[in-house]
Write a structure and sequence with these properties.
Elements: E1 11-14, E2 20-21, E3 24-25, H1 27-39, E4 44-46, H2 56-65, E5 74-80, H3 88-101, E6 106-114, H4 118-125, H5 128-137, E7 141-148, H6 152-161, E8 167-171, H7 184-193, E9 198-201, H8 214-223, H9 229-238, E10 243-248, H10 253-263, H11 271-286, H12 297-300, H13 308-321, H14 324-335, H15 349-353, H16 360-371
Parallel strand pairs: 1-4, 1-10, 4-5, 5-6, 6-7, 7-8, 8-9, 9-10
Antiparallel strand pairs: 2-3
């Protein structure tokens, strides 16, 4: 049965960057955020097998499933290609996910992070598309799709080979619209040409578009003083036809409040506001920053235990604000006790799993030049 876009909430709750307390997910804080989100008439929760070290699906159970009727929310999760060694792993992981989340079925189920290389090869090797359709026939999955981090050419191939998919999740934001690596605009156009519903991830680019360059903030605030900077990024995506749901990895109550405000009596961008976004995009292109969205996929397998996203955040602080001494002080206090940027051994594990396709090894060398040298 085709997905009725008119019945889908425009704002989805991504359970990827949940608040933590003492190194674990703060369930009390998440419950309060969930309550506020659902009270606004919104109901789409997105998680994955690997988020929060496997605890995100548990958070979905504790904060949503146990506390609300099953028909009052929809839940999406994902199968990770990199955890598949045999065909039996598909059912093993899926059954574990059902148990973790405390549900009998998932409303939306995705093959996680299709891109060039081993991920797509693994999904094909183990017939995961056919397997997904079988789960759908069994009633264990209501809607089947995939999330995507590859090239436009690969997206065309996957859709040609698998017309059975019902929706696709892509990274889409105004900063990456013409980005030759992410190619948000081209991916969007391909999906629209085929009338495939789109789930959007990283609409605020891991928070980067909620705290951009000072001249960008000034421009957006001048045009809409009472609106948050982040709301511009969400309204840009929400104004696009064919978008099913926009995921926000909300980390605190303030973000929930602001996002709910943005999507209550939603206002599409006006022509003048679209022109402002175009001007902002030009500024961003002229001031390149590290395009890290802090997904932390790179951290799990780093043999040196380097806090790569945290280091890149400091690199961006230097690039954007020229706050070198503050960044270095933070680096010495919070990064050095774990591992320095210079501790990178160049194994490349991080680059293999990075959805943004960043040249992490070279970027860590840049960071080491900034922060590891004595003044």
């Amino acid at each position: 049965m085709p997905i009725d876009l008119a019945k889908m909430p425009k704002l989805g709750f991504g359970l990827m960057r949940l608040p933590e307390k003492d190194g674990s997910i703060d369930f009390d804080a998440v419950c309060a955020m969930v309550d506020k989100y659902l009270a606004a008439g919104l109901n789409y929760f997105d998680t994955a097998y690997i988020y929060h070290g496997g605890k995100s699906e548990v958070a979905a159970r504790e904060c949503v499933v146990k506390r609300y009727p099953r028909d009052s929310f929809t839940l999406a999760t994902k199968l990770p290609a990199w955890c598949l060694n045999t065909a039996d792993d598909r059912d093993r992981i899926f059954n574990e996910q059902l148990e973790r989340a405390g549900v009998d079925f998932f409303d939306f189920y995705l093959l996680h992070s299709i891109e060039e290389g081993s991920n797509y090869e693994n999904y094909e090797r183990f017939n995961c598309f056919e397997w997904g359709l079988e789960k759908k026939k069994e009633g264990k999955i209501k809607h089947f799709g995939f999330s995507f981090h590859g090239t436009p050419a690969l997206l065309e191939k996957v859709l040609d080979d698998h017309p059975e998919v019902e929706f696709v999740q892509i990274q889409l934001n105004y900063a990456d619209w013409d980005n030759p690596v992410i190619a948000s605009g081209k991916l969007y156009e391909i999906l629209r040409s085929r009338n495939i519903p789109i789930v959007v991830m990283e609409p605020v680019k891991g928070g980067a578009l909620s705290n951009p360059l000072p001249q960008i903030t000034e421009k957006l605030k001048a045009a809409r003083p009472d609106a948050s900077v982040a709301s511009w990024a969400l309204r840009f995506v929400g104004s696009l036809p064919g978008v099913m749901t926009i995921l926000s990895g909300m980390s605190n109550d303030e973000q929930v409040t602001d996002n709910v405000k943005t999507f209550t009596n939603f206002e599409p961008l006006s022509e003048n506001e679209q022109n402002i976004i175009n001007e902002v995009r030009d500024i961003l292109i002229g001031n390149p920053i590290v395009g890290c969205t802090a997904c932390r996929y790179c951290c799990d397998g780093c043999p040196q235990g380097i806090k790569i996203p945290d280091i890149f955040s400091l690199v961006n602080t230097v690039r954007m604000y020229n706050e070198g001494w503050r960044a270095k002080n933070f680096y010495n206090a919070n990064i050095v006790p774990s591992a320095r940027a210079s501790d990178c051994i160049g194994c490349g594990q991080c680059e293999e799993v990075c959805p943004q396709h960043l040249e992490i090894i070279d970027l860590l060398k840049e960071a080491s030049e900034m922060f590891d040298k004595a003044d």
